[in-house]
Amino acid sequence: MMNKVLKMLGICAPLVFLAVCACFLFVNPSSNKPASLSTMGIVTAMLVLPSLLVLYGVLTERKRLVRIGAIWVLPYGMYAGLASIPSIWNIFALCIVCYWIAALAKK
């Protein structure tokens, strides 16, 4: 039972994280300006790609990939999640905590 809950957490957290990234890039309620190409590149490289890696790792049950993705997303994700409290971007930090729960859970 617990493994199913952890797997669902490991699947839902990256999906929510990706949705928040899309919101940040395309419909940012905090800014009237569209995201620049450099911002899109950084967000893709440092937030989107590791989240996709975590999702793939959870779906294929490869814990090493989940851990690599959780480490990779940590600096930029925590900065984005904790730079402004309270805000919608705090979801980034919450999702990273969920990544680590999924990464460190035993089989």
In summary, what is this structure?
The protein has 107 residues and is mostly helical.
Structural write-up:
The longest helix is centred in the N-terminal third of the chain and has 25 residues, at 2-26. The protein has helices spanning 2-26, 37-59, 63-82, 90-104. The termini are close together. It is mostly helical. The chain is elongated and about 45 Å long. The chain contains four helices and no strands. The model has no long low-confidence stretch (mean pLDDT 93).
Query: What oligomerization state is this entry in?
Result: single chain
Helix proportion range: over 70%
The termini sit apart by 11 Å
Low-confidence segments, given as residue ranges, are none
Task: Count the DSSP helices.
Answer: 4
Element order, helices and strands? HHHH
The strand count comes to 0
Shape: elongated
Biggest sheet character: none
Overall pLDDT, averaged? 93
What attributes does this structure have?
107 residues, 4 helices, elongated
Outline the secondary-structure elements.
Elements: H1 2-26, H2 37-59, H3 63-82, H4 90-104
